[in-house]
Design goal:
Number of strands: 21
CATH topology of the largest domain: Aminopeptidase
CATH class of the largest domain: Alpha Beta
Number of helices: 14
CATH superfamily of the largest domain: Zn peptidases
Largest sheet: 9 strands, mixed
Bound molecules: ligand BES, manganese (II) ion, zinc ion
Shape: elongated
Oligomer: single chain
Number of domains: 2
Radius of gyration: 24 Å
Strand content: 15-25%
Helix content: 25-40%
Distance between the termini: 25 Å
Structural class: alpha/beta
Length: 498
Amino acid sequence: MKFTIKSEKPAAVKAGCVVLGIYERRKLSEAASQFDKTTRGLLTSLLKAGDMDGKCGQTVLLHHPRGADCERVLLVGCGKKNEFSDKRYRDALASAADAINRSGASDALSYLPGLEIKGRDTYWKVRQLVEVSIAALYKPDELKSIKDKTSRPLRRVAVNVDSSDTEIAHKALNDGQAIAAGIQLARTLGDLPGNICTPTYLAEQARTLGAGYKQIEVSVLDEAAMEKLGMGALLSVARGSEEPARLITLEYRGDSKDTKPVVLVGKGVTFDSGGISIKPSPAMDEMKYDMCGAASVLGTLKACAEMKLPLNVVGVIPATENLPSGNASKPGDIVTSLSGQTIEVLNTDAEGRLILCDALSYSEKFDPAVVVDIATLTGACVIALGSHAAGLLSNDDKLAEALLSAGTTAADRAWHMPLWGEYQQQLDSNFADMANIGGREAGTITAACFLSRFAGDYHWAHLDIAGVAWKQGKEKGATGRPVALLTQFLLDRCGNDR
Ligand code: BES
Ligand code: MN
Ligand code: ZN
């Protein structure tokens, strides 16, 4: 999709479809009101006739509106004006993109960024328009031989802003497209099945990313190299699988060599059967999504490189399958991690922390400013927070605050959970330095407690994305979260340097 910026009167433009907001009940937005005047009350009479009352998500399409130069006008319900919010705006954008795409119009001119939202400027509104529109048209049909294509899909979107805002709007278009591309990559990888998206495949994808941007350098460790380093925890997970494990590193250099990088560590379990502690079969297919942390790291690095952010970012991806076999690790096995700490593997399904702990120790070599790991780590997080917020735990309140704030700005929110010392004792083991599970209570917190023991001498945060990385049900598919949060976090760190 191609985006441009315009600054014109709504009824005087030639466009396949002009998009206008209508508030509940039957209240015209500013642009709609201008359009109404030029068309001698066309919208007013339509609303009076009862075709629309402005409820959230409603859309009405008119053809060849008399008195206007466009082929169509799409009215989008925005709900009550005084309740209009980030979420309502994003919902309106999504219904608009979907309705235009189905209408047959291949180009549109949107006036939705003219709607007022408390605390949001043109940059934010235009960037959201780009991100939401691209996301709304994503279909996970790469592996369908017959694609249900719209005959004339939406190709070009012009965004109307005040003429004084065109420069900032262009910046928003570029940033929005970069972030959307990152989200798209994360979704595509997430939706690929485990037989295609293997650890080797993830490494190839990383290399492709490295080949596409000269600021990204990629290196991949195989099992022999990991063995040499002493990554006994990571390798214990890979034992049961025929697919060889990989440790993938991507280094994005946007700043001088001696600036400490942000390190992003993404869980890359390309299929999690549970291993010998095997999972129940219903919905086990969804464990192909257990590499969504890794996918979000790749997506975020892509967005960074597209925006040429002036900072250094390292992505570290431990990638493996978790399967049962005669070689697989067994409950009760004790393994030695890269840090030297020993771990009693009481449940082979708590594999995410076993691969992340070695990746966290490995990350120390980059002398990080901060380390953030991203993982579909616990079913308990889905129970605690559902599918709206990622779980956030950290050894540094300032870092947590920065991530929370980035999530709010990016409409990709997280929620801060405690990492108090009291929870640590749940990991006590009689035979090793710690167990890899902490019992039924506070599963998300004890998983983070486990990781905290490997987060070296650096500021560290953990995002548990088990509830947000993909959707279940009819709309089953990867969401691309938390690429938007992570990218915003990095953008915020750039401050006024760009
Ligand atoms: N990948 C799963 C977590 C998960 C489960 C994410 C369901 C999304 C939906 C992880 O590897 C896992 O199996 N965790 C266990 C930990 C337990 C054994 C302590 C879990 O949550 O059941
Ligand atoms: Mn598991
Ligand atoms: Zn897992």
